[in-house]
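Schema walk-through. Below, the input block comes first and the output block second. Nothing else is stored per chain. Lengths vary across the set, and this one has 369 residues.
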Amino acid sequence: MTSSGESPVHPVPDQDQERARLLVVRLGSMGDVIHTLPAVAALRAAWPEATIGWVIEERWVELLCASGTPRFGPRSPQRPLVDKLHLVDTKRWRRALTASQTWEQIAAAVRELRAPRYPLAVDFQGAARSSLIARLSRAAAIFGFAQPRENIAAMFYTRKVIARGKHIVEQNLSLAEAVAQRKLNLPPVPLPQDEAAEQAALEWLERHAVKEFVLMNPGAGWGAKQWPPERFGEVVKQLAKDGLQTVFNFGPGEEATVKAAQAASGGAAQTISSSIAQLIALTRRARLFVGGDTGPLHLAAALQVPVVAIFGPTDPARNGPFASQSIVLRSQSSVTSHARKRTAEEGLLKITVQDVTAAARKLLGAQRG
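--- output ---
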């Protein structure tokens, strides 16, 4: 179901003639890219011979392409979903907008984006910068949500699609169905196979004598979503009684958080800060993932690793682990909000160490069964 609004309406190109070129715009972040993968995989299944391009921030490219793999060319296990990757670095560009080098890089990126002459562009992000990038591609038809995250984004769309479904994966699929003009099924999510990262993960696990393990990420995008790191450490100690090892993964800026969690565990957990490709390799080998509403949690769900999800101000019905074996913990007193407060939301703090431990043991017991 679409609405044209006030923007000019262009006919959708005939897919039998023009299906060779489709541009996806989803710049970041990790969880958001992962939530877009099923919709793009559904488009790929509908148009197996299509050339699909994707505009993404450089820091997230390993979600689509193994390190060292060419960005353009025939698909492979190292780049299983898209044919062309268009990399941008909008954060760095915004920091140095007055520099001539920045504008040279932007101009080069735009030239590369226009070279394939995409007739269709789909903005899954709904932000001003993502919709502008879609327009800069010069695609004749630009699809986006009728109610995007930033209202100004709708100015650049020629097709405004009313989202269907509660979960963001379902909403993204409804946008893909508007592009395909047919009902689509959700296939498995394809993630790159990076042999070097797989080997590095195996070597790390062997070096630290880690075998059966639970992967935890005690970090969060902002303070309101942050379950206390000390409680993560207590969960580690409880699971250690069952003979399970724990690995804490952490990203940039989460050093203090993981240090506090490690201290609370009494040194029972290993810690690792890895590349995205190595995180994919580690997650594939984990028996269970425990964490909040973060990219690594959604990665685990996409890889069909059982998940204990600890939610507070964000709504798991929209952002929770999708189509995976999971237990979502959220207090009835939690109020949905995306306000980036520094302190943990009160409802989140009502989730106890015992709650998380019991959920973990239930999922692990189901595996044994």
